[in-house]
Amino acid sequence: MSLGDTVASGRIDSRAVTVALGREDDRSFLVSLEGPRCVGRLRGRFLNPRLYFVEELTVADSAGADEVADSLAAFLADSFCEDGTEILAWDRPEARPVNRALESAGFVVGRSKVFVERDIADYASPYDDPLEYRSLASLGDERFLEIMTEASRGDPFEDMSERDPRADFRELRDYAGRKFDPTWWRVAFRGGTPVGVILPQEFADRDGEGTLFYVGVVPSERGHGYGKMLHATGLSFLSRKGITRYAGSTDTRNSPMLRVFEANGCRITGTQLFYKALKKNLRKG
User: Fold this and answer.
1) Segments forming the whole domain that contains residue 39
2) 17, 23, 209, 213: least buried by Cβ within 10 Å?
3) How many whole angstroms separate alpha carbon 149 and alpha carbon 218?
4) Is residue 52 domain-shared with residue 103, that is, in the same domain?
């Protein structure tokens, strides 16, 4: 359907009216109508059941761009406010029309994430690493998950103990997809005592590009520089497996991890915004 096409016969309304036309979910494709004409459209998709990404927002040249965009965003706000769904958007010039419409409709930024990259072809850790590493395959799921949960304890951004650790662990495995390998995910030990966890992973849909799903140090071992060491060891592991580019992210408030990225030569590439609709902010119809 092109903008300006006639989508119904007769006059519908003098103002923009948003209509859902999605097949899998009625929020996946929206159109805004003025009379019989399509004057705007919004296409999005759910990255997971509680995270939605706007892929396209287009408004006809002859229409009031802000009014039409606002009507589309307001449709999402009404439903997303009830189920707590977040909308993911980039903090980039090309995304500003989407961000403006979301904010006008009552969405606010609840959190944001910094994304980084670096070339890791032939990368080797610059640190003298005294730790010993054992894999998920050798430790088994229960022991590995126990240590990973302990490493996350007290972390305001990744505290698994406050959620369902097993569900989170399954979600990570599912995200790894066909490239999941239990010999890649590691626990670091010092003299038999767990120090931290790293989860090196090649992206399921990108050959030669990988990340560290998680880097964590157990509470009793924090403050000794193990974070940057574990991160660098994970990058070295990925490089040895033929991964040439690393991409990572963290909450913009996570100062320790941001320092790790800087220490290990990672370059900031952008920021993602996570919008939530607050009921008190919703516009009255």
Assistant:
1) 17-113+273-281
2) 23
3) 9
4) yes
